[in-house]
Write a structure and sequence with these properties.
alpha/beta; Rossmann fold; Pantoate--beta-alanine Ligase, Chain: A,domain 2; 2 domains; binds adenosine monophosphate
């Protein structure tokens, strides 16, 4: 496995591989890798000759500086895991490699309402930061395919939009959310939960499933949502930023459920001071491809 730290070395390597006609799959990450990340690598390896993974904790996507400072860093075990799964190249840039002129003057992306809803509402500027770093990484890696996790549903929609804005030839591949046996979505942030917190956090996915099961009953959606929120708050979750049923592409709220609607349940909650997100699409995964 090749390990590179500078943009110029990466570009040289990519140019050589492209000249040989190699297809490249790319997985951008912020490290603290778990099996969810590894599943993206495995997916890429099955579809491309070469797989490139980046690890970079991008400051411009953190609206909360303490969240950035506390972001888990496990670089040695990350490198071992990436080598074990057969990653071809790991890119480990520092801040200056990604933002040579500093983080101050960055482009603004026209993401429409996608960046104001849900995560966007509670994390202002987050998706602009995500686009800034992904835009730069895409320019460096020029992947044939980009692999993202459905775990970050709204992020998938935002990156689809970014690819469209860039008129990029890169194909977006959305991979399913990997979960713990309890149903808890794997996340780097889970490392910061206590053992009891980790068990309790499994309720997030249970609540999403309970709402889905009851969607075809006559009970109004807002009542189902309120009941779900109550269960979580009574169990000791400190705060619920949102629990919403939304239209899968626009992410606008759905007031009346109809089975033919392409919808997704999205949630963001706090437990033990840690912000956790999850979602349950009530749709066919191909929905994502319509943006590219
Ligand atoms: P992150 O390091 O959190 O920025 O995540 C890097 C990539 O891994 C993103 O595309 C995430 O959506 C994806 N990812 C994170 N958690 C999971 C999971 N549990 N299952 C599948 N993909 C995931």
């Amino acid at each position: 496995m090749i390990l590179l730290k500078t943009a110029i070395e990466l570009q040289n390597w990519i140019t050589k591989q492209k000249l040989k006609g190699a297809k490249i799959g790319f997985i951008p990450t912020m490290g603290a890798l778990h099996n969810g990340h590894i599943s993206l690598i495995t997916n890429s390896k099955s579809q491309n000759l070469l797989t490139v993974c980046s690890i970079f904790v991008n400051p411009t996507q953190f609206n909360d500086s303490s969240d950035f400072e506390k972001y888990p860093q496990t670089i040695e075990s990350d490198i071992l895991a990436l080598e074990k799964v057969g990653t071809d190249l790991v890119f480990l840039p520092d801040l200056a490699q990604i933002y040579p002129s500093g983080t101050g003057q960055q482009p603004i992306y026209n993401l429409g309402n996608l960046e104001n809803l849900l995560e966007g509402k509670y994390r202002p500027g987050h998706f602009q930061g995500v686009c800034q770093v992904v835009d730069k990484l895409l320019d460096l890696v020029q992947p044939d395919k980009l692999f993202l996790g459905q775990k970050d549903f709204q992020q998938c929609m935002v990156i689809s939009k970014l690819l469209a804005l860039k008129q990029s030839q890169t194909e977006l591949v959305i991979c399913p959310t990997l979960r713990e046996p309890s149903g808890l979505a794997m996340s780097s942030r889970n490392m910061r939960l206590s053992e009891i917190g980790r068990q309790k956090a499994a309720m997030i996915f249970q609540v999403l499933n309970q709402i889905q099961t009851k969607l075809n009953t006559q009970q109004p959606i807002d009542q189902l949502i309120e009941a779900g929120k109550k269960v979580l708050l009574e169990a000791g979750f400190e705060r619920i930023d949102y629990l919403e049923l939304v239209e899968a592409q626009s992410l606008e709220p759905i007031a009346h459920w109809e089975p033919q609607k392409q919808a997704v349940l999205l949630i963001a909650v706090y437990l033990e001071g840690i912000r956790l997100i999850d979602n349950l699409p009530l749709i066919n995964d191909n929905i994502f491809l319509q943006f590219s």
